[in-house]
Amino acid sequence: MAILYALVARGTVVLSEFTATSTNASTIAKQILEKVPGDNDSNVSYSQDRYVFHVKRTDGLTVLCMAEETAGRRIPFAFLEDIHQRFVRTYGRAVHTALAYAMNEEFSRVLSQQIDYYSNDPNADRINRIKGEMNQVRGVMIENIDKVLDRGERLELLVDKTANMQGNTFRFRKQARRFRSNVWWRNCKLTVLLILLLLVIIYIAVAFLCHGPTLPSCI
Amino acid sequence: MSFQDLESGRGRSTRKFNGGRQDSTQAVASGIFQINTGVSTFQRLVNTLGTPKDTPELREKLHKTRLHIGQLVKDTSAKLKEASETDHQSGVNPSKKIADAKLARDFQAVLKEFQKAQQTAAERETTYTPFVPQSALPSSYTAGEVDKVPEQRAQLQESKRQELVLLDNEIAFNEAVIEEREQGIQEIHQQIGEVNEIFKDLAVLVNDQGVMIDDIGTHIDNSRAATSQGKSQLVQAAKTQKSNSSLTCLLLVIFGIVLLIVIIVLAA
Lengths: 219, 268
Known about the structure:
The structure holds two protein chains of two kinds.
Chain A lengths: L2 E8 L2 E7 L5 H11 L6 E7 L2 E8 L2 E8 L5 H18 L12 H17 L5 H84 L10
Antiparallel strand pairs in A: 1-2, 1-5, 3-4, 4-5
Helix pairs in contact in A: 2-3
Chain B lengths: L1 H17 L2 H28 L7 H32 L6 H34 L8 H11 L3 H118 L1
Pfam families (chain A): Longin, Synaptobrevin
Protein name (chain A): Vesicle-associated membrane protein 711
Family (chain A): Belongs to the synaptobrevin family.
């Protein structure tokens, strides 16, 4: 919670206030209202322990808020500007003649809503929203890096496996070639054996017809 | 002014080539373009009527723009008539006729738009009264300054001094806000730099993995080639083995017959 307390006042007359936590902000705020110098428009900040009181005075109307030191100035003063515009838009010229706490019942709810908005909603400040978005982008990119590294590991495994597959297919090709050679040689031997057998049979037949192993009648 | 210069330059160059035929078409096209521009300006002025910017000067400008567009419409209408008369002659290029017809339709469209804008302007001119700035105020200020007294002068100096103090405070405040905003922007800039570094790292990783994928592709291609060759070797081996079976069968048959003959001969 960045903004803890807010009030709207005319001079030192408090018209509306809201406190988000139980602190002594109200007392200190009233002291600050008396201490703010001059009657002209101004923007000032007062430090008190860990909190800072930001005061904005415009056209006789003073808007004050108490914020944590870490909230900086941009968001609290944007809050003050917003509250001032809403207050003037809602009550107009009645601001200059109203009694103390005259608008407190209605406007304290608006103060509460805006305190919550400027304290918690990233959209209240464009720079903070962009910071948040850049953080998201960075997270997504780091996640992407992790995924790509994981993918790299799997690709390495795949490289190893495909290298093994390549080796196996080379071996398969070599063995297939050897097998073909063996089968061819067996075929060759069978052919030669068949030819020899046929020659032997022919010789025996011719020898029988020629009446002798040395073929005397035919030669 | 620059457009008119461009137009005159273009007209001069075109006249050398075409002998003046295309000159009228080009003139009509540029006229329609100028009318379009004028009508846009006129509409923008009409949209300003009824707003705090509505002043007698604006009304005067509106009037001048209306007259200017009227003159442009008159000139372009004459040129369009001249171009259409040229189209009726024999031997005119059909594409020129088509272009002139298109220009005529464009001219009609822009005229309708101008008439609509004129009606809107007339309505708003009667509805609204121009905003006259208060010229009486400066004279009263001037009268006030004439009666300056030393006491008022001293008060004026004191007021100026306070004003300077307030301005200094305002400057300090604005500088603090600007400093804070700059710090936030610096952080955003730093984060963007980090994201840039992450993107570069990612690019390096993706490139390396591209090399790995190329290796995988090479391995798979080699495996496919080797498998194809092995398959062809096996197919040939299968054919040879089939031939072996036939030869073995033939040998057995012949051997059987020989044995049979020998047995018959011995038995006899």
